[in-house]
Predict the structure.
Amino acid sequence: MARTTGSHCDITGPKVRRAALTLFARHGYAAVSMRQIAGAVGVQAGALYNYTPDKQTLLFSLMQGHMEALLTARADLPSPEDPVEGLEGFERFHIHFHLARPDAVFIAYMELRNLEPGNFAEIERLRRAYEDALEDILRAGVAAGVCDIPDTRIATRAVIAMLTGVMTWYRADGLLTPDALADCYWSMTQAMVGAG
Amino acid sequence: MARTTGSHCDITGPKVRRAALTLFARHGYAAVSMRQIAGAVGVQAGALYNYTPDKQTLLFSLMQGHMEALLTARADLPSPEDPVEGLEGFERFHIHFHLARPDAVFIAYMELRNLEPGNFAEIERLRRAYEDALEDILRAGVAAGVCDIPDTRIATRAVIAMLTGVMTWYRADGLLTPDALADCYWSMTQAMVGAG
DNA sequence: GTCTATAAGGTGATAGAC
DNA sequence: GTCTATCACCTTATAGAC
């Protein structure tokens, strides 16, 4: 017979994070109450405070976890000599990583304004580090004469905006596979930075 | 002597809309209370209901107004024969229109999930109409052999995502003028769709 | 670790005086 | 058209029983 009370520390923690991720992505941080999260987990609201000191820290922790996973996975990519190869690796990584985590990506972009100043600064720092990784590649491409862009920093942001834009319309149940999508965006990325 | 009560119908209505626009953009619809909006306007909360039946309608009205202004202004653009000229006109219009209305743009992208289903469908319809205008240009460019893109619909969304991405980092007090920015994005747009 | 109960305060929206 | 007062409800977070 299933216990409805007692010790569940091993599973409740992750369940809280998953429920919060889903609900924050769907309705927005400010529109989701601790009671709703608790309801989705199957506990009472008070029990959530065994896993987070407050709602704000829960949001921050989700965003920080996402950004650190993004940076770690990016750092594990091979670093080819050829800047165009490096750009292709970055582009395919970006598409696949983002498609696999739509809720976390949504939150990382939409909930920045709901972070307290210190938390915002930390997430901004991580986001900047990711941008810098792409900018390094583009700068190397310009230096090697295989890229033609008007401004390295703006082109960096433009590429990331274009690639991340896939999240606003792609549905996993469509006809396009993630690989086909990455192919499509790679050809546009290449053209955009003059690396055809 | 200034009256603190009485008839102000001519000015309070617009002030309510402006205050709501600013506050929704800064903190998010769900995080802003009617009392906060009233405070920004300089009235009590109850007075707001002379100008909107409820909070949801206020949000919808702001988004609808923005999207209709966007479509109207777009429709007033010249329609040159040359698809590349048409694309350049669209691109420069998009940058300037968006830079001039950062709060409205922010709301139109971020608050979609806070719309009730019927309201959401209407905003989606308007957004789709705007996308279609660009897609028509790109399709004409492909037909004329002056554009080279892998998929017209995806390229349409990619161009809009890239251009709208300027909103996440551009600050009016920076060194870059809107015209210089539009130049920069035009060269990237051109390259992206193979219309160099 | 989870529960119930509660504190302290905010929410959207309305009624009726002026 | 705006005010004050109010309704009915929801909010985050905590305290103490089990």
User: Anything to note?
Assistant: Residues 4-9, 12, 43-44, 46-47, 50 of chain B lie near DNA strand D (CB under 10 Å from a C1').
